[in-house]
Amino acid sequence: MQDLIIVGGGPAGISAAIYALRAGIDTLILERDFYGGKMNYTSEIANYPGFVNIKGVELAENMFECAKNLGVNFEYSDIISSNLSDSVKMLVSSNGKEYLCKSVIIATGLKTRSLKCKGEEKFKGRGVSYCATCDGFFFKNKKVIVVGGGNTALEDALYLSGICKEVILVVRKKFFRGDKILSDSLKNHDNIKVMFETVVSEILGDKKVEKVILSKNNKKEEIFTDAVFIAIGQEPANNAFSEVTSNDLGYFSSDESCITNIEGVYVAGDCREKILRQIVTAVSDGAVAATAAVKFIKNYKFKYAHARN
Predict the structure, then answer these.
(1) 134 given a catalytic annotation
(2) How much of the chain, in percent, has pLDDT values that exceed 90?
(3) 270 catalytically annotated
(4) Which one of the listed residues 135, 156, 184, 285 is annotated catalytic?
(5) Domain edge (last residue) among 179, 195, 230
(6) What is the rounded CA–CA span in Å between residue 31 and residue 106?
(7) pTM
(8) What domain range is 226 assigned to?
(9) Annotated active-site residue in 26, 33, 66, 131
(10) Tens digit of pLDDT for each residue in 222-246?
(11) 209: CATH
């Protein structure tokens, strides 16, 4: 049985592991995708203290090296259910493996929100993408559509403009929700076209994406495209932890202490309710959650050692 299991290997999870390991706690990180989380999908990070500018994959690697040098245990595992209310916590992965531990830090972050239009599921991986930095290269000198009006969509459009022949940015509202510095940057790229108050109602094609149906003011327009990059926001990836109290939007309920309604269970990073979701706040959460978990585990060991005597 592990002392501590951290579910999620993004900045919050890695930070938690570093603090726990330095306190002498046996720690395992379980990550469903890649260590570093969504940092791996961010081409440039320019607001993390200590770096004027750094690639997301590089920062992810740097963070993970710190935990690895301290001897962290790490496994790729997708946790789909849990039993956290007992003194021994249990986590169950998608392959049926069960993990037992004394304390859990949930740092599962966010998952990409689906557009939920006709054709989206059919063409996933065949022209429908949720990661411009991952898949943009495959559409070099092609025409693509980016859907969304927030920072991710703006960053994706700017990134793709350097690869693709034409980028059409489809925005549901009359305005951008992203930072002004990003929206202003669009003006410097002649191959980016913006369509406000427009939605993608259908994605069409044969074996791959070939065109979309756009709707604006009840009028439909057919546009040919080679890909649709969906960047309409994210939602918490918290489905496996139904015992932990969440708010109406599905984010775990917790203040800056990162403590949940279940003893020995803590939350860190973007999966919890908070004002700001950034790498710097995720790292802070990880440190706070680990400090609380270390205290709990040390008391746990004393409590049960005393009970046996």
Answers:
(1) yes
(2) 81
(3) no
(4) 135
(5) 230
(6) 11
(7) 0.77
(8) 128-230
(9) 131
(10) 999 999 999 998 889 999 999 999 9
(11) 3.50.50.60
